[in-house]
Amino acid sequence: MLNYPLLDVRVSTPTLELRAATDELLDQLADLVRSGKTHADPAPYDDPMSFYETDPDLRVAKWLQAIWRGRGKVGPDAWRLYFVVMVDGRPVGEQSLAGVSFSTLGTVTTFSWLSTDLRGRGLGHEMREAILHLAFHGLGAKEAASDAFVDNLGSNAISQGLGYEPNGFDWATRQGEPALLNRWRLTRDRWEQRRRDDIQLHNIEACHALLPLS
């Protein structure tokens, strides 16, 4: 995008591509949100979450509004990059990366979801590896944090498999009910031990120009 180069950032692996979430790509991804392909059982999302909205059109509207708000907030305390996950040229999910006091702490967190019909194929693991490569190799992160409800077996397995270490527990609500979260922590040193050489970053200079990284 000529006037906002953060929307040209991409991360590619042999299996998938993360493309910055332009409105055009979000319009394509909205079909999955509208049809409920974000759902999982047990529910993986803490409150507030647009995906719990029962009206399909309102669900899409709230989801887009949240992304637009987050995409436009870029400051030293917090910023967030949103990506659409592409497999074989079609949008299949969402992956985001958030900086948490990044210029001071160098810490990031991640969030993702994948269409229900593509789960169980290792794509969630690949998405996380791609975004971690952007965080550590591309942006110089010092640490990545993640959390997942204790009954979210898939997300917890991905964190454990990628070298995250347990970092305690926390409480959150989902659909108004309290639920326990596992917290995870991945240091740069542990990421370096497992880093891959087949993940490519594209137009990364936009992040260094427009994000408060230091």
Automatic annotation (TrEMBL):
Residues 16-187 form the N-acetyltransferase domain. SUPFAM superfamilies: Acyl-CoA N-acyltransferases (Nat). It holds the Pfam family Acetyltransf_3. It comes from the Bacteria. One of its GO terms (molecular function) is acyltransferase activity, transferring groups other than amino-acyl groups. InterPro entries: Acyl_CoA_acyltransferase, GNAT_dom. Keywords: Transferase. This is Acetyltransferase. It comes from Intrasporangium oryzae NRRL B-24470.
